[in-house]
Write a structure and sequence with these properties.
Length: 965
């Protein structure tokens, strides 16, 4: 069965996306959980240890606190409160930390540092799975054992105001609640006022036991303008005033003999130097934890800050309120909280915490008895029983006290060891699903590689032996073998596998598909083995003979692509991947410059009059080009590679990215400072004007007008939100820019509609190549307008340089040097990867700018928010891929199969690193940096594969259009 190269590549990518999804489902593990589906109850608590007698009662110590207020400030970094700037940002809180009855800690949050997984960690005490980053957009109800459920079951009355993620996680748990959406990051005022407006009336009432306040404004400011914004200090002072109001309201409610209150100030995660979060850098994982209560001793100065895990708050609050610890909690009680209680109560608290951790250890680790922490806990429990015997006998000697302190120390060591062991075992990999997904992806990659000679031939058609494979005996034998393996694995697996949970219909389709792909592979391989590749016509990377011959540029492109793929095996290369692409791009520019010099200074055969003309003209007759113009074209071609190198060097200074140097100041920080607003305004205006002149050349006059008005709307939007200013604008009043953004959207849709109309007319009504080319470039200009709206003002030079390099390379390099479709495609791919990092992106989730998902929206709408965020993040690769489609489709002097060749090469460029990377993360799944470095990169690779599949489908449409024209 013969299929066009573009159709073949598109279907391969679509099936690779399915295989990648199956791999992801198996790779991101289910967090450590107890095998029991029930929740802990007071009746399940163990008896107090007692040696030489019947088990003592399951007595619980008296609760430590009567009422708890949790003030959670989203993205509250540790240095905002406990650092040198804390005295300026939060003076009252800092006074309580240094002089008041409080306990202060640095609480470590585990990656991924996004809100929903952090709320899960705070309420369940468990470490959520990394895939919760995706689930953060749509949080389902939390069904596992948690602090909120335990409190509600115990009759505690809970009131909540703030981030509506809590309401979705704990439906029907709150006596009273008022949620606000956490994703509309343009709002940092009303989102907090909506919480504070309930505060005064709630604090006067006595009909609640737990009050939870989740403030989002600080996080939104971070997303908009970063941690060094002028908006940070006023917001933190506002939070400080709110804490003072709460503390002042709680103090009068203290009565003699009653249990004290507890006021908790904490953050769910920190904030990176760019203002985002999600990664594992110190500013993102270090959060303050301040516990304020009259039960604690007053401080006499700033003490050394102890580091605790964020999940330690869960057992601390549970035991402090007289509740059972959540079943899946890996946290340990904070010792300082129980210092004011008797030694017996302290030991009982630690015993309960140890019993819960030991039960979780038994359920999640087969060799739990060999764990050091478990052995230490058993020894401490025995010593605790001996101490209890002496205590109940009335022994009051100093020996008993010293013995109790020794048992206390043993318990603390055991808790630390068990908590550490459980934290390291983040979850169990679903190896069967991972291997199945990996096999699918690699089968498809091998088919893609074996089809290369035919796919890049003059016919650009691949002969797939589908029918012969489906009718062969090995196909049916393989189906039976794989079905048997599936039954064997699913019936003998100790833990549930996702692939085993699928219906038999889906499993049969997967088995048949894998068997068919294997038979096709064998058939194609045997067809290639006897003879070398017989390619009819001139292939992109071959000579006129039957053997491959590679030029110097081909060797560079091949070596660079393979070298980059191999570099992904090292964590440092993943963290600093941008350096790899910057190096490859610089080397490519030098290689192209060598080709240009060779053409103009070493070739002696052709004269200037006979050379191909490259500037667009309606009249292609040679006489239309004077010698002076041809001479200037030569020097412009020679200047293009050095100019590209200069642009790339300037763009590298615009945004610091990666890990090692991300904290260093860059040009973007300088431009975004308030004192340089005029410079940023002039730069943005200049870039928008230049973007117009670069894009409008191939558009109709209607699209030109729409593009001009749209770019004016982009500047108006940036002025409305306060990034830039008009010369006549003196007030500092800023708005959300909703009207201005929607004004731009109207012109984006208008340009896209005009381009789509021309494309359809050229395909259905008349085979007009000129109309098709204009339609393509109009669609591209609409995409450029949308990206210019989404890019931050300081990033507009990135878009400007992207368009300028594309224009120069298209006119003076790719066409003039007669680079084939494969070479042009690889160059576009390299440029797209480099521009991904020029934007300020990295392989860290924290660099994703989610604020662009709300440009022009007044409330959170999931579909457009996800689309805009994805487009903004991958704007570099997408713009270069779309330019490739437009360039190959509109070049009339190119072969009709150029678009097919480009589509095939793009699919191959994306498939090789994706397939290699899933093998690497499987091998390195127990690596120290698997969750902080390799897992985020896996999500980026998967998303890039999905977007490339979409681009290849667009390629396929254009190729069909090209062939009919």
């Amino acid at each position: 069965m013969k299929v066009r190269s573009s159709v073949f590549a598109s279907f391969i990518l679509i099936f690779e996306v399915i295989g990648m999804c199956l791999f992801l489902r198996g790779f991101f593990p289910v967090p450590v959980k107890s095998s029991l589906s029930s929740k802990n109850k007071l009746s399940d608590l163990p008896a107090e240890p007692l040696t030489g007698g019947s088990p003592n009662s399951s007595r619980l110590p008296q609760p430590l606190f009567k009422r708890v207020v949790i003030m959670l400030v989203d993205a509250l970094r540790e240095d905002f409160v406990l650092g040198p700037s804390g005295r300026i940002f939060m003076p009252y809180t800092r006074h309580l930390v240094e002089r008041g009855p409080s306990l202060s800690f640095v609480a470590k949050a585990r990656a991924p540092t996004v809100t929903m997984p952090r709320i899960k960690a705070l309420t369940t005490g468990s470490i959520p799975g990394f895939i919760d980053v995706v689930m953060n957009l749509n949080s389902p109800a939390l069904l596992e054992d948690n602090l909120i459920w335990q409190a509600k079951t115990a009759g505690k009355r809970i009131v909540f105001y703030g981030d509506d993620t809590w309401v979705r996680l704990f439906p029907k748990h709150f006596m009273e609640h008022d949620g606000t959406t956490s994703f509309f990051v343009s709002d940092y005022t009303e989102v907090d006022n909506n919480v504070t407006r309930h505060l005064e009336s709630t604090l006067k009432r006595d009909d609640w036991d737990i009050l939870i306040l989740h403030y989002l404004g600080l996080d939104h400011i971070g997303h908009i303008s970063g941690p060094h914004s002028s908006l940070i200090q006023p917001k933190l002072l506002e939070m400080d005033d709110i804490l003072k109001k709460i503390h002042s309201a709680l103090i009068p409610k203290e009565t003699e003999g009653s249990l004290p209150y507890l006021l908790v100030l904490c953050g769910d995660h920190g904030m990176s130097e760019t203002g985002s979060h999600g990664g594992s850098s110190e500013p993102e994982v270090n959060t303050p934890l301040v516990l304020i209560s009259p039960a604690f001793k007053r401080k006499v100065g700033m003490e050394h800050l102890e580091v605790v895990e964020q999940v330690d708050l869960t057992p601390t609050l549970a035991l402090g309120l007289g509740l059972p610890i959540s079943q899946n909690s890996v946290g340990r009680i904070i010792p300082g909280v129980m210092e004011g209680t008797s030694l017996r109560d302290q030991l009982r608290f630690l015993h309960l915490n140890g019993h819960q951790l030991s039960c979780l250890l038994k359920d999640s680790m087969p060799g739990y008895e060999k764990e050091v922490g478990f052995e230490q806990y058993r020894m401490a429990e025995k010593a605790h029983g001996s101490w209890m015997k002496l205590y109940l006998e009335g022994n009051t000697s100093e020996v008993l006290t010293n013995m109790g302190k020794k048992v206390l120390k043993q318990y603390l060591e055991a808790l630390a060891a068990m908590s550490s062991a459980l934290s390291k075992q983040l979850g169990k990999y679903d190896m069967y699903s991972m291997i199945a997904g990996m096999v699918f992806v690699f089968q498809l990659l091998l088919v893609l590689l074996l089809a290369m000679p035919e796919a890049l031939s003059g016919a650009a058609a691949v002969d797939l032996p589908v029918f012969s494979a489906l009718l062969s005996l090995p196909f049916y034998l393989l189906c039976l073998l794989l079905a048997s393996v599936h039954v064997l694995v699913c019936t003998s697996a100790e833990s549930s596998c996702y692939f085993c949970s699928l219906s038999w219909g889906l499993v049969f389709v997967a088995v048949a598909f894998s068997s068919a792909m294997f038979c096709i592979l064998v058939s194609m391989a045997t067809r290639r083995l006897p003879l070398g590749p017989k390619i009819h016509g001139k292939p992109p990377l071959t000579s006129s003979g039957s053997e491959w011959s590679l030029s110097e540029l081909d060797v560079l492109l091949l070596a660079g692509t393979i070298g980059h793929t191999l570099s992904l095996a090292a964590s440092s290369f993943v963290e600093e991947e941008h350096q790899t692409w910057y190096f490859l791009l610089n080397t490519l520019c030098l290689a192209v410059f060598q080709d240009v010099c060779r053409k103009y200074f070493r070739e002696q055969s052709g004269s200037g009059d006979d050379e191909e003309h490259i500037l667009p003209s309606k009249d292609c007759h040679p006489a239309a080009y004077p010698k002076a113009e041809i001479y200037s074209e030569k020097w412009l071609a020679l200047a293009t590679p050095p100019f590209t190198l200069l642009c790339c060097r300037l763009l590298r200074s615009l945004n610091q990215t990666g890990v090692q140097w991300a904290h260093l100041p860059d040009v973007g920080h300088w431009l975004n400072s308030s004192e340089h607003k005029t410079v940023l305004s002039l730069l943005a205006a200049f870039c928008l004007v230049l973007i117009y002149f670069l894009v409008q050349r191939r558009c109709s006059w209607v699209s030109k007008v729409a593009l001009a008005l749209g770019l004016l709307g982009v500047y108006s939007y940036r002025a409305a939100v306060g990034n830039v200013s008009f010369p006549w604008q003196h007030s500092r009043n800023t708005s959300k820019g909703t009207v201005e953004a929607r004004f731009v959207y109207v012109f984006v849709l208008g340009i896209l509609f005009t381009g789509t109309k021309d494309l359809l007319r050229s395909q259905i009504i008349t085979a007009d190549a000129k109309m098709k080319s204009r339609g393509l470039w109009e669609i591209y200009s609409g995409l450029v307008l949308l990206v210019s709206l989404l890019f931050r003002a300081h990033n507009l030079p990135v878009l400007c340089c992207c368009l300028l390099i594309q224009t120069l390379m298209a006119q003076f390099i790719w066409k003039k040097l007669r680079y084939d479709a494969a070479q042009t495609t690889i160059m576009h791919y390299w440029f797209g990867q480099a521009f991904f990092y020029f934007q300020g992106n990295s392989n860290n989730i924290a660099t994703i700018d989610i604020s662009v998902g709300f440009v022009g929206l007044e409330s959170y709408v999931e579909a457009p928010a996800v689309f805009l965020t994805a487009l903004s993040t991958y704007a570099g690769p997408m713009l270069w891929a779309c330019h490739l489609v437009c360039y190959l489709s509109s070049e009339t002097d190119r072969s009709l199969v150029a678009v097919s060749h480009g589509c095939y090469c793009l699919a191959l460029l994306r498939s090789v690193p994706a397939a290699a990377y899933i093998v690497l993360v499987t091998v390195l799944r127990y690596h120290l940096f698997i969750w902080s470095v390799f897992s985020p990169k896996l999500l980026y690779e998967s998303m890039h594969l999905l977007l490339t599949a979409g681009v290849c489908l667009f390629f396929n449409t254009m190729e069909q259009n090209h062939s009919t024209s």
